[in-house]
Design brief:
437 residues, 10 strands, binds zinc ion, 18% strand, alpha+beta, 49% helix, 17 helices
């Protein structure tokens, strides 16, 4: 035996024993209330349900399964039964305690469901099937998404006014927007056009926003993101709904109070349409790295035309872009003597710079100490979406991907605890209700 094996066996055995002891203690505590709430109790629809007896239920907790016996009421009008005690314990229509549900959702937000189940077994000694881990995380994520959505509606309707950010106010609020494809099961992309050879979509776009603030620059004049200031949101819903969610998040973050708003995006038209509508006073900046890619594409188009001088040509155009000298870049582009389809491609490529020229005053933005790259949201896309939803072999449906993306956004925004402070987080939305037991 290797060194430490004895201890490893011993400590695990003791944990198992202590956990069992804990479960019986918990069971004893729960038995102190039999859930009797009088001969009648209100059902969820507000009817009077009638006591029919007592029923046993097993709840999985962080110390293992625990049996509870509680009063059972039947509602004749709804045609089903309920135990008021379950709702009080946070286990209505669920067989996991809130504590275990939190733990499970946390693991499943971080790693794939099968690995999460394995980690819970190894680290916490809790045995759950992969399917239960998945359902638990989806329910928590769906409930969080529903709560965020409801809050968004209230904020957009001005029924809820977020408190201003604490003083001193940050100087600038950035809203960086991006989209990325998430691989989907066929049912989730049915009838959607895509880029694959057969014209069908394999992915659905999740739209992501990262909001962060900036107050200072470093000694070299580069902008510094206020530490811990990033918050994220992600949705598969259309641009209009994404706009509402972003608007609400902007208001939560102080868009009504902070001096300077900045919208950072790649060149996609929908982003600027939203920015015009929601944040008309914001400075719009095309992410420099996306713009550079477009310069590279233009140079690639001109490889045969320019031959040996192509690298120099590219370097000069990148310099012009960095300086925000879009007129010079456009003139050089128009000087490329293409014909036919290449000419059309050139004009299309130049159209990007024409349309976005006013969002590419990079030298000016730099001089003001502003961020000109949306590296934050790109990194966020990779970390929040890519590292959990786009792993090899994964195929999602929209509710599942939304739930996990929501949990991960909440975590990346340091709002993990908020999910659980919202009441009834275990109440599943209708589409997931069939999973609940
Ligand atoms: Zn009823």
């Amino acid at each position: 035996m290797a060194q430490g094996d004895d201890l490893a066996v011993l400590e695990l055995a003791i944990r198992t024993a202590v956990t069992r002891l804990g479960a019986s203690l918990l069971e004893g505590l729960l038995a102190g209330d039999d859930g009797y709430r009088g001969p009648r109790a209100a059902c969820r629809a507000g009817h009077q349900a009638v006591l029919t007896g007592y029923r046993a239920k097993t709840i999985d907790t962080v110390v293992g399964p625990v049996a509870v016996r509680r009063a059972w009421y039947h509602c004749a009008e709804c045609g089903h039964g309920l135990a008021p005690r379950d709702a009080e314990l946070g286990c209505a229509r669920a067989s996991m305690s809130p504590g275990l549900a939190r733990m499970t959702a946390r693991a499943a937000a971080a790693v794939p469901f099968a690995r999460a189940a394995g980690l819970l077994g190894e680290l916490a000694g809790i045995s759950l099937t992969v399917k239960r881990v998945e359902r638990c995380a989806e329910m928590a994520g769906a409930a969080a998404a529903a709560a965020i959505s409801a809050e968004t509606d209230a904020i957009c309707a001005r029924e809820l006014i977020p408190v201003p950010p604490p003083l001193p106010l940050p100087d600038m609020l950035y809203i960086a927007v991006d989209g990325t494809g998430v691989p989907m099961v066929p049912a989730a992309t049915r009838d959607r056009a895509g880029k694959a050879a057969d014209g069908k979509a394999r992915t659905r776009e999740v739209k992501l926003a990262c909001l962060f603030t900036q107050t200072t620059t470093d000694e070299d004049g580069f902008p510094v993101r206020d530490p811990g200031s990033s918050s994220y949101l992600a949705t598969f819903e259309p641009a209009e709904r994404f706009g509402h969610l972003t608007d609400a998040e902007g208001r939560r973050r102080g868009s009504q109070h902070i001096r300077q708003l900045v919208v950072l995006g790649d060149g996609a038209a929908w982003i600027w349409n939203l920015a015009d509508e929601l944040f008309p006073a914001a400075t719009q900046i095309v992410d420099l790295y996306h713009a550079r890619e477009h310069v590279h594409e233009l140079a690639t188009l001109a490889t045969r035309l320019l031959r040996g001088s192509q690298p120099d040509w590219l370097a000069q155009r990148l310099e012009e872009l960095d300086a925000g000298n879009i007129p010079a870049l456009l003139t050089a582009g128009q000087d490329l003597k293409f014909t036919g389809s290449l000419a059309r491609e050139r004009d299309k490529a130049l159209g990007y710079f024409e349309a976005n020229a006013h969002r590419m005053h990079y030298q000016h933005f730099r001089a003001l100490g502003m961020f000109i790259g949306s590296g934050v949201v790109e990194a966020g896309c990779k970390a929040i979406i890519g590292q959990r939803l786009k792993l090899s072999g994964m195929r999602w449906n929209i509710p599942g991907a939304t739930a996990i993306a929501t949990l991960r956004c909440q975590e990346a925004s340091n709002r993990w605890e908020h999910i659980w402070q919202r009441a009834h987080y275990q109440t599943p939305p209708v589409s997931l209700a069939k999973h609940a037991s």
